[in-house]
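Help: why these numbers?

___
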Amino acid sequence: MTQRVALVTGAMGGLGTAICQQLAKAGHKVVAAYHPQFDNKEEWLKEMAAAGFNDFVCVGGDVSVIEDCQRMVAEAEATCGQVDILINNAGITRDRMFAKLEKDGWDAVIATNLTSLFNMTKQVSAKMAERGFGRIVNISSVNGVKGQAGQTNYSAAKAGVIGFTKALAAELANKGVTVNAIAPGYVATKMVMAIREDVLKGIVDSVPMKRLAKPEEIGFACAYLCDELSGFTTGATININGGLYYQ
């Protein structure tokens, strides 16, 4: 298999870490993009090395700022070569019922969860098309598919991710570049597992499989969509939610 350079945003969160690891296991060179406010980069790298992942390259920047995205991609290319795979994973929440949602909470979520796709993808998609190969995977959410009370901002952004994916897939379909989305349900990241026990039980009980997704299950789906043998899959949304919601 040809080794590809994979750039993952939001790389140091629970889901991002699993995606980085699964891409590395698939033989790719991984560039981990993280927000500058993430102050545990060295600790994260030590944890990755202890787990057997010794050669992750890190680039810092804010995906909601296009100049940062330009710089991060330039750093990745200077260090590792052309970016063949882009995983748009960075995301935040600012949950509030709509009546109490302020504009800054709306703007922050839309900028980080949706505008970031433009900012990052703009830096690599044309180059991928010129070379005749590329894999773009955008992380949506079950709540972008079905909606969720208290998450009008998040649900709107994650629904937008799916629309962006379908439209760009159509534009790049004959260029050797695939664009797909993954819509996870509830995933057993450290953040989710820290939820109050009774609340967490309610979440698990709502899932037909009666469990949360393992982060590596989402990472594995990313690795599949980035494989050379996934080249006939584009414009798709892979729902990984334990039967919580069917389209």
